[in-house]
Amino acid sequence: MPHKLDARQADFERAFADFLDVRRAEEADVDRTVQGILADVRARGDAALLDYTAKLDRYETTAAGLKVTHEELEGAVAQCDPDTVEALQLARQRIAAFHEHQKPADLDYTDADGVRMGHRWTPIDAVGLYVPGGTAAYPSSVLMNAVPAKVAGVERVVMVVPAPDGVLNPLVLAAARIAGIDEVYRIGGAQAVAALAYGTETIAPVDKITGPGNAYVASAKKQVFGTVGIDMIAGPSEVLIVADKDNDPAIVAADLLAQSEHDVNAQSILITDDADFGEAVERAVQTHLQRLPRSEIAGESWRRHGAVIQVGQIEEAGRLIDRVAPEHLELQVADPDALLRTFRHAGAIFMGGHAPEVLGDYVAGPNHVLPTGRSARFSSGLSVLDFMKRSSLLQSSPAGFAKIGPAAVALAHAEGLDAHALSVKLRLNEG
Amino acid sequence: MPHKLDARQADFERAFADFLDVRRAEEADVDRTVQGILADVRARGDAALLDYTAKLDRYETTAAGLKVTHEELEGAVAQCDPDTVEALQLARQRIAAFHEHQKPADLDYTDADGVRMGHRWTPIDAVGLYVPGGTAAYPSSVLMNAVPAKVAGVERVVMVVPAPDGVLNPLVLAAARIAGIDEVYRIGGAQAVAALAYGTETIAPVDKITGPGNAYVASAKKQVFGTVGIDMIAGPSEVLIVADKDNDPAIVAADLLAQSEHDVNAQSILITDDADFGEAVERAVQTHLQRLPRSEIAGESWRRHGAVIQVGQIEEAGRLIDRVAPEHLELQVADPDALLRTFRHAGAIFMGGHAPEVLGDYVAGPNHVLPTGRSARFSSGLSVLDFMKRSSLLQSSPAGFAKIGPAAVALAHAEGLDAHALSVKLRLNEG
Q1: Chain B 374-403, CB below 8 Å of chain A: which residues?
Q2: Which positions does UniProt annotate for NAD(+) binding (chains A, B) (predicted)?
Q3: How far apart are alpha carbons B223 and B230 in whole angstroms?
């Protein structure tokens, strides 16, 4: 049974707070292990990388064999179902079109005092994209990470993907090819993160690493942060659906299960103003579970972490949304724009009956790499900005300098930094 | 003696690479200690906070005594030199004016297929600003962190600042007051970061923590990342000055020392095309050092980490700038705009003879919180964007959904996620 909460009950606040407090993923104590792997790859380069790949992925290869060839990438596309390739191409094109809108503008202006200020944005030189192997190998995730980097103008986009027992997922390679990535290595885990951050004889280091991974990859990313940039550390995925009774319970149930089927730690929450509708959705969940291939995972996620929350009026949902700060938010209500004005925290907002999360997961255009575990309170989904950086600009006329320079001298003296003061005073001919 | 490098020599590449590789700050093994403090404050709240404050800051107080009163903030302004207060007010106004230009625009458009996409930016609810105590207590740093948060629209800006032996720097409190901060606690170290991240009985938790600190604060920020957002982990500061011979050596020397005087691990580098000018700057450094109060720190920094790099032509500097990716870059050359086009990596760029770094440190407007230690390759200075987050929006017409939905179904099946496929198929009446 999923959690049942009723916002009209006296004990709701406490029950809701308890529900939010439950940690969905156990954090294994992997930091120590990862620390050793990072140091080893940093010290021994390719030799260490090959050792860990043999041991952890059960794949013996040579330094030259680490790189996936152009022919293998081309071959992967040929090997995939043409409909899937076409869908990946449509997705790539739509993701690129949306992300083009995110390209930031430079700034360059001179104020009334004669001080020129601004900033310019430039792409990061080299980015490494981590792609998980095995069951979590998603071609859509390749596109969602690689396309914004390409739109940003990143010159070198490198992909790493583990090949357990030597096997790679052709869909993932096809997505890389479609995204325009031509540097792919068959490595994974903390050792791949180390290779990207520090470089080896075979793999030149990158400036930033993005992409999802298991606890070892997450720990490695956290530990190399500073040497390179990283994107967010993603936790289990979640959806919050606000639906009134005018929806089809079977459809809302499918949307809940689309989240639950990812992982037993995934979370699906329904907020509704209609008890009968909520029960109908729960029944539809059970019906769907009887025929879904991943029903074991989805069912366990729904029982352990799912919830149906009843509110008196649909408008009350906004307050709860901000408390959850969901990664994905579906507003399946008559006037989603009105509800939009009542909350602030959500990674991605899906409005109305024809924009299920799944549309955004694959083909709509906005990014599906989003802040999880309430981090939408302070962070955003992946964007073109994550693949660029900004340099500020400053220039001044002599008159502008004469006007504001003395205040800099005053503050330098106040902070006890006399060389700072001197730098300005000499220019004011007061040295 | 600072390092001497000559780009015209055969061994330059190796020498330059070695120079860049030197780590300027020793990383103490503080993570374990910090882990204990974080866990203790999380578990025991105020009681732990008071214990650590008594032990580490030698300051015994009560939970009620942690908060700096409104009267204390007002009193601090009254206690400061009026010229300094006026300079802080000018700085606040100019920093706010510049950062207003950084406020991002929302996006909302519908494409030819009838798919509505966009994003909206909202401020983070609550931000904690860490301010170091003691000698590194800089009022300018308070403004540079607080003003962008205020411009972003953050409702609750909290400041923490340690009071070693119970003493607070009135300039720091005055800057807080001028920046409009009214919630200030006299706590510091990892215990303050823990209080901000997890909350205590007295201090409500925040969503993001920014601001500089020592190794313990840096480790604490890194460890709470995920529970809250953090800004970058700042290392020792650095400046790279590109100057031709038409500059006054005494002025360039002062600019170099303005960086060196921060910290023995700070770094100042001069690139010039004129050997005589380089030597004149070195002599001027020695002359300045004889009269500067912080000459011991500045001299040690200059000897250990300073460098004079000679290039054949000033245009060759661009390539070296990108290798250093300096936090601060001064272009004291005839045509700084031309040089600007030859490189990409720098935190802040100061152009021409009337825009020394110091002007930007205090009053010009752009932020002085900038990426250090080559991280300008992948990150940017503090901005309004660091205090906001973006939610993506998606909506679709039935026709748009019918057009792109089938591609989502194809990809869902390819990834083996049947509930994903079902969510779309039911809406296509294919369930």
Answers
A1: 375-381, 383, 385, 389-398, 400-401
A2: 130, 191, 214
A3: 10
